Amino acid sequence: MIMQDMEEFVPIIKQTPTLLILTGMKIDNNKHFILYTNCILVKGYKESIILDLQRNSFLPISNLLFVVLNLNLKILTIGELKKYFHGQYNNGIDKYLSYLKDEEFGFFTNDPQKFPDIGTDYYSPYPINSSVINYSSTSSFNLENLFYQLVCLGCQIIQLRFFCKIDLKLIDIIINQIKSSRLNLLEIYIQDYDWFIDDLLRIVDSDFRINLIIYSAKNTLDLHKSPNSDRLFFVCDEITPYSKEIIDVQMFVSNIEFYIESLRHNVGLNRKICIDTDGSIKNFVNHSTVFGNASIDTLEGIINKNEFKQQWAVCNDMIEKCKDCQYRYMCLSNSYVEYVNKKFYKVDTCSFCPITNSWNRK
Amino acid sequence: MIIIFSEKKDYSTNKVIDWLIYWNQKYKRYNGLAEDEVEIDFNKAMFSAQIEDDNASLNISIEGQSISNGIKSVWFRRPNKGVDDFYRPILKNNSGIPRVVFNSLLKSHFTIFKDLLVQFYLQFKNLGSYSITGLNKPKVLLLASKHGLNIPKTLITNSTNELRRFFESNNQKIICKPLYEGMFYFQKNKNYGFGEGTNLIEDINVFGEKFAPSLFQECIKKEYEIRIVFLNNNLYSMCIFSQNNTKTMIDFRNYDEKKPNRMIPYLLVDSEAQKIRNLMADIGLNMGSIDLIKAQNGKYYFLEINPVGQYDFVSYHCNYHIHREIAEFLSDEKQSMFY
What we know:
The complex is a heterodimer. By secondary structure, chain A is an alpha/beta fold.
């Protein structure tokens, strides 16, 4: 999804200084040190992280520091922690705990039991959370009815991609469907057909939940200075029905909602229903498995089928490569997950390698 | 049918309704009059309340429909104490009586009916309070103390001399808090909110001889703050580490967007939790938010109760699912009200 102020959504990556740089202070060995409850230790194959769910950031740490912090620090005082390692890591413990305290990843306390872990229950009142719709000149399903159904199912985010020229009145009809609904965001992609800027502005002005993206834009137009022009975008890239997503640090999400969902669900596919140009109902537009057709079946009927929901429950902890990756609770992917030889694999795999801890971009 | 009294733009109500919809629960939401509101539910409605002399039953109809049937629960989320959701002012009158006076009299007539309506609703399971939307802070402090909670030394005064005495006897470090609440004022396209936060007083020479009645308290050295959402005798507690940031040390609402205070789940010790339960029962509230301080001396200090405060951020940061809990309480035939 395109968002204008990307910077505020990109997680802040902090850097752990090496021991040589850290000065650290004398700490009270009788106290406990615990990480704040919304700072989560995540083990990776070669490198680990502390995931900061409150401040949308993460701190890469060594696997050794992971081991130290992962002990039951609510039971062990700092003195007992040092003893556990036979005094081998006293200096490192002093310095890193001070550092983590200064950077507000953790704190010293005499009552660690007063700070319970965050409950990991995930609940959602929305049978469907998101939807992607591909619409082309050959599409014969009824968009108005489709939106009506999505809205009834509590859908929060819809991405509608047009691959043909349309009468903008069709968008007015759709806006009418979402008017009093609980929808949070509607993104519409239309190719540049030399639209009148006023017509486009009228669309984004009619509902503040709409982002309108004009793709394959011919010139870089100056955005008209309308109060809502920050929701009207022009991009020169081409969008295709099966555009591949690029997994990158810039797209990672570090917050409580995302984290809790990622523990037992595939965040990308969970509660998502997609409709392809021919009306095929799928988990995602570029998957090949079809569960029904929007011209014939109701969405509610499809989501009540267990087969449709199978992909929802395959979380990153279950998938090869992802399960070794320190970013697995921040990463959203719409890839189809296949089950081969009793193992799960993402068909569209990203360029990160947890074993070498590097991105192998071509 | 679940009845909800709220405001048009209340996010928390929307989130609870999401669950009611999910569980196919019938509900009716009444929003108080907002400044831009043109259509209001009750307003044009014809209503009647009939009292029978056999077992003093009360039957209320709105628009010809009896509302007596099928009410499961009522949630006074942000009940509008006025009768704005009911009445329309008379715009013209030839009586010679000033319009303001006339409308005030008319409002009082509607108030009688509305109070009767609310009394009718009170017989069902209810959450929140119609009558208690704001509290007398000093009174609550006294009551809290009676129930065994520690409270900060407090002074309410309009006199600088009294203030000086208090200032000196508290190490020249005191805070000033709002005695009442903030005010909101709506005009056509602008919303105004004004009020005071909590301020540290270190120099009392800036005050004149007297001032409006104000509330002062000793400044307690905090280890951290605790915000508790109280829901039908359950306490959902969150710890706020406001001490790490000079911006938020005195009033954590001076939010630091770049480095927000740490907010994490908290387990309040049972003895203090029970005192709070007793206090809420005494006041007659089954829902509200409570502020405490954990002082550096190890003691807990009670600060105040807000019967209609925001609880969404507590629910979010601690993953407490409070909206779901509220919806479950309202929907559940089995779950009873504590008092």
